[in-house]
Amino acid sequence: MKSLKNFTLLFGILLLTLIVLPVVSAETTYTPTTETTCSDGTCTQIIYSGVEYVEEKGEWKHWTEAKSLKDKGFEITILEDDKDYKLEVVDFNATSITVDLNPNGLSIFSNDVPVRIWNVKMKTVLN
C-alpha cells in the first residue's frame, strides 16, 4: 500500500515536470514586426507585414492594447485639410484620438467647426 502511494507521488511529480517545465522554459521576445518564441533550443519566429507590437515602459504589448500609438510606426492621414481651421493630432490609440482644434492659438475660433473621423467600417461625424 505504501509503495502505491510512493508510486503515485512520483508519477504526479514526473507528470507535473513534463507539463510545467516546457511552458516555463519557453521565452518569447518581440520587436514591432516580429514575435520569436524559443523552447529547448528551437525557435519559431512570426514576421508581420506591419507593426504588430509596441513597447511602452519597457513592456511589449499588442498594438490594440497600447495607451499611445504616436511615434510607434503608425500615422494619421488627414483627408481634408481646412486652410482656415487647422487640426493637430495630439495622441491616438486603437480606440480614441485626441486632437487640438486650435494648434496656432488663434484668438478668434468658432466652436461650431464639424470634425469627421472616418473608419474603414463606419463613419462618425462629431458636431
Task: Note the topology.
Blueprint: H1 2-25, E1 27-31, E2 34-39, E3 42-47, E4 53-56, E5 59-62, E6 88-92, E7 97-100, E8 115-118, E9 123-126
Antiparallel strand pairs: 1-2, 2-3, 4-5, 6-7, 8-9
Task: Give the H and E element order.
Answer: HEEEEEEEEE
Q: Find the structural class using helix and strand composition.
A: alpha+beta
Q: Based on DSSP secondary structure assignment, what is the total number of beta strands?
A: 9
Distance between the termini: 79 Å
Strand content: 25-35%
State mean pLDDT (0 to 100 scale): 76
Which terms summarize this structure?
single chain; 127 residues; alpha+beta; 2 domains; three-stranded antiparallel β-sheet; two-stranded antiparallel ribbon; 1 helix; 19% helix; 33% strand; elongated
Q: Can you summarize this structure?
A:
The protein has 127 residues and is α+β, with helices and mostly antiparallel strands. It has one helix and nine strands; from the N terminus they run αβββββββββ. The strands form four sheets. The chain has a three-stranded antiparallel beta sheet with strand order 1-2-3. A two-stranded antiparallel ribbon has the order 4-5.
